[in-house]
Design goal:
Largest sheet: 2 strands, antiparallel
Helix content: 55-70%
Strand order of the largest sheet: 1-2
Low-confidence stretches: none
Number of helices: 1
């Protein structure tokens, strides 16, 4: 592993989860989300995580809507087929 980004000559013990800089044990900021080199990187990662969560929620909602449309289209086609066969064979 390379040297600490902030302390020349001191070996890095971890890499920042956001920017990838090597940091020594004194400089690292350990959180539940990982190890960071600065508060700025920690905050940037937190914003990224929040935006990712929002995007996933929107995608899940959109998939739910498209599944409902597929069901509606399927039911319309099924109903049309039933009417067609009833008309052809019973009338």
């Amino acid at each position: 592993m390379p040297e600490c980004f902030y302390h020349t000559g001191r070996p890095a013990v971890a890499r920042c989860k956001q920017c990838g800089r090597g940091v020594c044990s004194q400089c690292r900021i350990v959180t539940d989300n990982g190890i960071f080199c600065s508060e700025k990187c920690r905050e940037t990662f937190a914003v990224f995580q929040q935006r990712l969560k929002e995007a996933e929620e929107k995608r899940a909602a959109a998939q739910g809507n498209s599944a409902r449309w597929r069901q509606v289209i399927f039911l319309i086609i099924l109903l049309a087929a039933i009417i067609f066969f009833l008309k052809k064979f019973l009338w």
